[in-house]
Amino acid sequence: MALVPFEWTGRFLMISLTVPVFNEKDALQPLFEKVHRVMSREFPGRWEIIFVNDGSHDGSADLLDGLAHAHPEVKVVHFRRNFGQTAAMMAGFDFAGGGIIIPLDGDGQNDPEDIPRLVAKLGEGFDVCSGWRKDRQDNALQRNIPSIFANKLISTVSGVRLHDFGCSLKAYRAEVIKGVRLYGEMHRFLPIYAKWHGARITEIPVNHHARTTGHSKYGLERVLKVLMDLMTVRFLDRYMLKPMYLFGFWGFLFFMAAFGFGAWAVYMRFLGYFFTGTPLPMMAVFSFMTGVICVLMGLLAEMTTRTFHESQNKDIYLVRETRNLPRATT
Fold first, then answer.
1. Range of the domain at 28
2. Do 213 and 104 fall within a single domain?
3. pTM of the model
């Protein structure tokens, strides 16, 4: 029997599934068949699936066009080139017409059977329901262990208590993410952005299948990217509207350091040492200042990037063509 967590009227008439795709040709047909079976059983006539082809060159584009031709609920967005997973997710959100939006991976590791449970949680009054890959079927050294540490760090820094920020399978009420703009590789922090908008967030364990086709696009270098992105999110959370608090704090510390080093130099002079007697204090000060300036310049660059995109309402992707969508080209 189909789950009916909402009164299916108004904005909740449609559930939009969004799937970023980059060279996943062999996984797409099995994924769609599973999605079609689950959604037709649980939400007949109330769903769409939007595949965003992120510049694939393995034949995925032709396969997606074939699915769109045969199934009107399949919508396809073809990018002009590869823009990355965050841009593909943003395009899926932009083109989604449903009141509930559910992203999932195109590699077949997410289980469509979990979708009704995610939607049912929204029916309990939550705005976001996040999937938790409790029994994750990935390489332990490359993916699982770094993910555990990264998730604990993100939870501690952000205050959003989730076990699995990296799981794409999440259900959102459309209004909590339609206004969110993502850049770089910030898609993993969507629940944090939703929290800033006052969203109520919950989490449920979901199934996770081993990859049977293709290969992972991520390695250990992703941990460093997560740390840098987390620094940006923390900055935006605390200082986006009051950056002087951050820069003023560091300025105060530098003033204190300058006073301390000056007093020390005068004291050493009274002891008979010349100011130029050793370069070590100056080297320490300039090395420390250079490191701090680099960090602050990185944060300023993040702000500048967002200002550029927001002020011009500029998309972070370019669409070549679409299928079964109102906008044929962009």
1. 14-220+316-323
2. yes
3. 0.75
Chain centroid, CA 31 distance in Å: 22
Can you read off the two tokens belonging to residue 184? 């770089």
Distance CA 328, CA 330 (A): 7
29 close to 37: Cβ distance less than 8 angstroms: no
Q: Where are the alpha helices (DSSP H) in the chain?
A: 25-42, 60-70, 85-95, 115-122, 145-158, 174-177, 190-196, 221-239, 243-270, 280-312
In a domain, 173, yes or no: yes
Q: Is residue 44 part of a domain?
A: yes
pLDDT digits (tens, 9 = 90+) for 181-235: 777 677 778 888 888 878 899 999 998 877 666 555 555 566 677 777 788 777 7
Q: Give the tokens for residue 114.
A: 């979990």
Supply 96's token pair.
């989604």
Q: Domains in the chain: how many in total?
A: 2
User: How far is the C-alpha of 292 from the C-alpha of 286, rounded, in Å?
Assistant: 10
- The tokens describing 273, both together, are 């040492």
Of 60, 26, 3, 30, the C-alpha closest to 323 is 60
The C-alpha atoms of residue 101 and residue 167 are separated, in whole angstroms, by 15
Non-local CB neighbours of 259 within 8 Å, separated by 6+ positions: none
């204090």: which residue's tokens? 281
Listed in sequence order, the residues at least 6 apart from 306 whose beta carbon sits closer than 8 Å to its beta carbon are: 181, 183
Query: CA 234, CA 196: separation in Å to the nearest integer?
Result: 12
DSSP letter for each residue of 61-73: HHHHHHHHHH-TT
